[in-house]
RNA polymerase sigma-70 factor (ECF subfamily)
Amino acid sequence: MSGVDVREAITRAHQEEWARVVAALTRRFGDLDIAEEAAAEAFATAVERWPADGVPPNPGGWLTTTANRKAIDRIRRENKRDDKHQEARMVFDDDPPEPVGAIDDDRLRLIFTCCHPALAVETRVALTLRMVGGLTVPEIARAFLVAETAMGQRITRAKAKIKAACIPYRVPSAEDLPRRVSGVLAVLFLVFNEGYLATGPDTDPVRPGLTAEAIRLARLVRALMPADGEVAGLLALMLLIEARRPARVSTSGELVALDEQDRGAWDAALIAEGHRLVRERLAAAAAGEAPGRYQILAAINAVHTSARDIRDTDWSQVLALYDQLVRLDPSPIIALNRAVALAELDGPQVALATVDRLEDTLAGYHAYHATRADLLRRLGQSQQARAAYDKAIELTGNTAETAYLARRRDQLM
């Protein structure tokens, strides 16, 4: 096996086995710090030994065994030698059965631990990317425009809080699972959104690494919870949005709106997979299973990606789906997005009246002003549209979006 093949094998093993190794060690030792450090050392050992010894037949088993040995070595180095030896002996020799949740899988336990509601949302995101995704602290810090030392401290404090608060390492009970799953999905969607449209001005406007990681983790949760409709809905939503990424930013670095995108550049394979998931959820809905927020959002995106041209979009179906979503999630942002569809059916004047009613809650949200600017432009109210574009540009941090809004503003008569 060539050096390139070995490197590819190590990369693949990291992608496929990191979460499994960390999860197995966390269950055995009950300590995220030990699990993380031992897993990292095991992969470092693989980088050193596999080129000379060859890739083992069972890379995951080799990594888990090596990580276990690294963890035991660390325990032996701890100051309280006797207590730690006894602890290790108890873990290996008398491992008591843990309460079994609705689903019994170490990786799912790890995900729910990292996304525990006792932790702040930004901490859940960072911890999930590190412990489940295997991203390094510098990678996570760069992803969210935070200093590396600050991100490292955030993750360290999170692990300490889990330990001090005795947050259980288990999948929630069947009764608690729906509520807790929504928190996991929210974390994954936050990661995806930061990649889909980065919020900071000092980074790339679209960050494929983050969207790919969010999709990979969503696939993992989907594999572990195949019957959960919202998990399938979120994965479908991510796939259908990600499919449009090749057409979303121009060569000059400007955001390309949906109505101007080259639909031939969209990823047909991702669209086909997303549509298949949406059809599965529609069949479930027809059988009486009420769809959740992510499933409806996925259905909306399925309508958009089904149209060969923007003029072929079934706006009445989009609006009907938004009406369904508003009943489920009456948030002002959903109402704002609904207004965009309303404008296509009932005209910009009707939509503008709806948007203006959202001013009190969305005055600090750049998309509110961008939507309002576009409606005012369509109504020929150039002076007011210019002011709205200026406000949207002031509030947005994404460089591609800024360029797009500035061009639309400068085209006003």
User: Anything to note?
Assistant: Residues 88-102 have pLDDT under 50 and may be disordered.
